[in-house]
Design brief:
Layout (H helix, E strand, L loop, with lengths): L1 H29 L27 H9 L3 E17 L2 E2 L2 E2 L5 E16 L4 E5 L4 E6 L3 E18 L9 H4 L2 H14 L2 H20 L6 E6 H5 L2
Parallel strand pairs: 6-8
Antiparallel strand pairs: 1-4, 2-3, 4-7, 5-6
Length: 225
């Protein structure tokens, strides 16, 4: 019995020791500084878009428009009808029954435009005005459609034959007359009017110049001021 009592006493001592260690440790850590974790609200980041106004110079506009090069802005189409006749003569007198004639026609096109490589731009930011100076309109091309050639009412005389190929030599002269006819009918004026519209649309579509007054002039108008 004495042995059992010793064992029980030993176990009780061990239990009490464990309890003392447990409660002692808990008390110790309860006295330490506590680490507090708090959720800090993140402020909403507002992205600010800073609009930077970029000033476009007149030289920048001019450089971009010179890339257009020589541009056709008006076209004139025509059908030319001509009568060719030839007769033999002696000392200025026509010999009867030696006349050869035929009527022919052909189509052609005359194009007029502006050489934009010679454009000048003056941009006045203070006055909010852009002055564009263009060279005068000019004939860019004049072509005859050889496939459109038609021959009518051919009367060839055996004593004075005339060939259709003889007409080809006069095409250059006829083209010049048609170019002049196109000019007389306002081709160059139309080319200038279309060029003005083209310049205004190009500038308004490519640059922020809506607050500017755009004036388009031609060399003759500038020199006449």
């Amino acid at each position: 019995m004495k042995k059992i009592a010793n064992i029980a006493l030993t176990l009780l001592v061990i239990i009490l020791a464990c309890c003392a260690v447990f409660f002692g440790t808990k008390y110790y850590y309860s006295r330490q500084v506590k680490t507090v974790i708090r959720e800090i609200p993140v402020e909403k980041v507002v992205e600010k878009v800073v609009e930077k106004q970029v000033e476009i110079s007149g030289e920048t506009i001019r450089a971009s428009m010179t890339n257009i090069g020589k541009l056709c802005t008006a076209e004139y189409s025509y059908t030319h009808v001509e009568r060719a006749d030839s007769s033999r003569s002696i000392k200025g007198f026509k010999i009867p029954f030696t006349t050869s004639t035929f009527i022919y026609s052909y189509d052609g096109t005359v194009m007029a435009g502006i050489d934009f490589t010679r454009i000048q731009i003056d941009k006045d930011d203070a006055a909010k005005k852009i002055t564009v100076t263009l060279p005068e309109a000019e004939i860019i091309s004049s072509d005859v459609d050889q496939n459109s050639f038609e021959l009518y009412d051919e009367k060839n005389n055996i004593f004075n034959p005339i060939s259709v190929t003889d007409v080809a030599d006069s095409f250059a002269e006829l083209k010049n007359s048609e170019e002049q006819a196109a000019i007389d009918r306002g081709l160059l004026d139309k080319a200038k009017a279309n060029a003005i519209t083209l310049v205004e649309n190009f500038m308004l579509g490519s640059y922020d110049v809506r607050d500017y007054d755009i004036e388009v002039l031609f060399d003759a108008e500038v020199s006449g001021r």
